[in-house]
Amino acid sequence: MKTRRRVVLRRRWTLAGRMLAVQLLIVLVVLVGVAAVSLAQSNARFRETEGNRALAVAERLAVTAGVREAAAGRGPEFVSQAKSVVESGRTFSGSTYVVVALSNREIIASTDPLPLTGKPLLQETDAFLGRSWVGRDEITGAALAMAPIINAETRETDGVVAVGRQYPSWTANLAAARANLLTYLGIASLLGVIGSLLLARTVKRQTLGLEPREITGLVEQREALLHGIKEGVLAVDLDRRITMVNDEAAHLLGVPLASAGRSLGDIDDTGRLGEIFDGTDIATDRILPLHGRVLTLNRMPVRSHGRHIGWVATFRDRTELLELQRELDLTRNTTDTLRAQAHEFSNRMHIVSGLIELGEYDDVRRYIQRVAADQTELTAGITARVADPAVAALLIAKSSQAAERGVSFVVDQGTWLPRLDERLATDVSTVLGNLVDNALDAATGARDPFVAVEVLEAAGAVRIEVRDSGPGVDSAMQNRVFTHGFSTKDNAGDDRGIGLALVRVICRKRGGDVTVHNENGAVFVATLPMLAQART
């Protein structure tokens, strides 16, 4: 037999309900405090008022003839008279008890029955020294007043009259103050309900109508999302203090994960992170070499009510992507070279075929010899100065491309390059290929188009210089030509503005750099250290 499970749905309190409950609890606590204070004040007033009344009764009884004679020891008849006097005084004043005691504290008359054996004593006070006294009964806790009985002849203190008035119980005091307390409770409860509703309404308006549990859920989801995505997120305020950093950003930027509240300058001595947030504009897909990585940066200013309050930046690691892009560039250069050579070979075959059809066999032989000699001279001239096969092959290929585009391609006589390690050869080929492609684009269409290349290894670094006869680079744009996505061409597409940015990234990643200046055209100079020392 299947058992049916009962699902008990617990009703969750709303924000207004929680605030109302808290307010009522506060009101209740305050009410208890007020009641305690009221009882304490009532006892204090009773002690003061009733003590003074008891003292007045004691002083009046202390001067009566019967009490004075009894205290002076004039005989049993005066003791009986004193008992009658104190009982009348108790009844008349409404006191709890009245006692007459001798100077040795022995009680001789009392409204309460005295024990049959022993001598009952009254507590010792200043009244036995001839001074009136108001205080508290040590046994019963009642308000107690004592007045001395002064001997008319000797002016000595023969005894005292003590009058006690019992305190009312706390329940009696509470019952007396019940009406006021209920009034206070009603008013406070009404104010608490109204205040809770208004406060809850204000808070919900500021929290877009969300309940606390919903806000908590959104915060937990936000934290899980920010720390779970594989894209770095860094947020700072106007004082460059970090307000949020996720796991991926801490890994890519090399900052502690617990950096919230700290200044960028405290965790980055180089100042590179601070440069990210210079300006209030939007930055999109900006290349950022940092700690040996190539990052893509997107920066967005954060505004609240139209006021700029900070920035948020996202980072993606493009190191592996750039490695693939370099390999793709090499493949593309190889393809372009093969296409140019195929085109040039096809043209030469057409010439050879035409000469054969015309029967000019001697001219065919001389043409083939001249072409072979030119190619051999170009290859020998490059390989004699460039020992690295990858770089030499690239220069030969670029000379074919230049010839196809009608541009004179010159390898400077100062060129000298030894054989490089595989990774450095790849970096040099990528930088050289992009600079030559940029130069060919600039020189094409010029009056006397040429491109000059010098590759030199010296002082532990490879120096690449590429000149062209183009219009040069505007001085105002010399710092922008290496920015990702920037291009001076009118028909710049998605593949434009990448080559020079990639050149600078590769150079800086190895600890070098690339610069440009004008000298009858643009002159690009790139430096790549033989031993990579990545710049941050």
Topology diagram in text:
Blueprint (H helix, E strand, L loop, with lengths): L14 H48 L2 H7 L4 H18 L3 E6 L4 E4 L22 E4 L6 E8 L6 E9 L4 H7 L1 H29 L5 H17 L3 E6 L4 E4 L1 H7 L10 H4 L4 H5 L6 E8 L2 E12 L2 E11 L1 H40 L2 H23 L5 H16 L3 E4 L10 H22 L6 E9 L2 E8 L30 H11 L3 E6 L3 E8 L7
Parallel strand pairs: 11-12
Antiparallel strand pairs: 1-2, 1-5, 3-4, 4-5, 6-7, 6-10, 8-9, 9-10, 12-13, 13-15, 14-15
Helix pairs in contact: 1-3, 1-5, 2-3, 10-11, 10-12, 10-13, 11-12, 12-13, 13-14
Strand content: 15-25%
What is the helix tally?
14
Distance between the termini: 72 Å
Write the H/E string, N to C: HHHEEEEEHHHEEHHHEEEHHHEHEEHEE
Question: Overall 3D geometry?
Answer: rod-shaped
Helix content: 40-55%
CATH superfamily of the largest domain: Histidine kinase-like ATPase, C-terminal domain
In angstroms, what is the radius of gyration? 54 Å
Q: Into how many domains do the coordinates divide? A: 3
Text of the CATH class of the largest domain: Alpha Beta
In CATH, the architecture of the largest domain is 2-Layer Sandwich
Overall pLDDT, averaged?
78
Low-confidence stretches: 1-9, 490-496
What kind of sheet is the major sheet?
5 strands, antiparallel
CATH fold naming of the largest domain: Heat Shock Protein 90
